[in-house]
Amino acid sequence: MKKHLVILGAQWGDEGKGKIVDLLSEDYEVVVRYQGGSNAGHTVVVNDQKFVLHLIPTGMLHSHTLGVIAQGMVVDLELLVEEIRLLEERGVNVRDRLLISDRAHLVLPYHKLLDFLLDKKDRIGTTMRGIGPAYMFKYGRKGIRVADLEHEDRLYTKVKENVDFVKDLCEKVYCEKSQIDADEIYAKIVELYKEVRECVTDTTRFLLKTSKRILFEGAQGTLLDVDMGTYPYVTSSNSSALGLSNGTGLPPTYFSSAVIWGVAKAYITRVGEGPFPTELKGPVGDLLREKGGEYGATTGRPRRCGWLDLVALKHAVEVNHLDGIILTKLDVLDGMEEVQVCVAYQYRGKRIEDFPASVHLLEEVEPVYKPMKGWSGSTVGIKDITALPEEALEYVRFIENYTNTPVVMLSTGPRRDQYVWLIEKEHAHR
């Protein structure tokens, strides 16, 4: 039996990974977040209580799990401490079960300021959480890591140098006055660090040595991957399986026996700017948004909605070498007379069946649709595959045949208990 499981997004994020990770964490002892930061928003409904988690691994809503914030994440200490306190107020013990990598980089107030100025100019559509600039500083060798918090004199020097650097950028490049204060930032992170200091460790060493079963929880989605997504309209980390090794510090061979499942909606959405071949800007798109509750968990922004893009989904299958697909929000399509799926793109008279690297090409393509008969019956809360409307099952099978990948589970509602396995559960992790 394969030991570890990877759950990641197979679209532009917002696929419903939070609910899936929460559900499957029941069978795992450790849950690891390994990339991104507070730009992620994983929503879970447990016993009619809604939890929205940005930094804490979603699987920690189970009392038996240990959560790991690994080295590939960028951590906003203020938001992390706030999230810990909010969970503890709701009866979830966090600090005794959380490990934070000493190699993880910090998101600081000057990163958020830069995020605002950069997006004001380039209109990427970021969450303004400072994630991109934090990664910029990391790769520019100006980042501050959790381990640096142990050395207060050197920490102050680094903060002061970075604040002076950002002030120069603001005033000399963007012609904006900056109000950021190095002393204030330094004092605040020193105080915040005291709240989580006991959680900090070498998480790579822990993961290498533990014999426990591990679930790796991806954030965002494959089409937002900084290398394999719709660059530059992407996140600032490898949000596909490419981020597993560098995000955890574990060797690539470590994941050779892991099961990798991608979560995808029965349609597709994206937030912010960037190409979207199957976007629906009329009444059908509005219907999907309202029925699916398509508003960002992190920003509250309305999501752009469209028909399922199988060219893009197959790209995610290939990039991640997915063993299976978990399909969510099939119920949003309930009651439609006809549904459509994109099976190719048309570009200047040429048919394209592979997801292109060029964002300019992707902006110009026309989707080639296959119409499929809709279903009148409800799929909400279905627990047995035999209860699925025949047309809904045909829709699922078409996705499987096109991607050459099994759909292993359907999520049939927002609650933890609303799902149905399409394979035998005891064989699911093999």
In words, what does this structure look like?
- With 430 residues, the chain is an alpha/beta fold.
- The chain has 12 helices and 20 strands.
- Helices cover 31% and strands 20% of the residues.
- It folds into 3 domains: 155 residues, Adenylosuccinate Synthetase, subunit A, domain 1 (Adenylosuccinate Synthetase, Chain A, domain 1, 3-Layer(aba) Sandwich), CATH 3.40.440.10; 90 residues, Adenylosuccinate Synthetase, subunit A, domain 2 (Orthogonal Bundle), CATH 1.10.300; 151 residues, Adenylosuccinate Synthetase, subunit A, domain 3 (Adenylosuccinate Synthetase, Chain A, domain 3, Alpha-Beta Complex).
- Strand 3 and strand 4 form a beta hairpin.
- Helix 3 crosses helix 4.
- The longest helix is centred in the middle third of the chain and has 22 residues.
- Keywords: Cytoplasm, GTP-binding, Ligase, Magnesium, Metal-binding, Nucleotide-binding, Purine biosynthesis.
Main sheet?
Answer: 10 strands, mixed
Gap between N and C termini: 5 Å
Q: In the CATH hierarchy, what is the class of the largest domain?
A: Alpha Beta
CATH fold name of the largest domain, please? Adenylosuccinate Synthetase, Chain A, domain 1
Compute the gyration radius: what is it? 22 Å
Report the helical percentage: 25-40%
CATH superfamily of the largest domain: Adenylosuccinate Synthetase, subunit A, domain 1
The number of distinct β-strands equals: 20
Mean pLDDT: 92
Q: What is the structural class?
A: alpha/beta
Biggest sheet, spatial arrangement of strands = 9-7-5-2-10-1-11-15-19-20
Binding site for Mg(2+): 14, 41
Binding site for substrate: 297-303
Binding site for GTP: 13-19, 41-43, 303, 329-331, 411-413
GO molecular function: adenylosuccinate synthase activity; GTP binding; magnesium ion binding
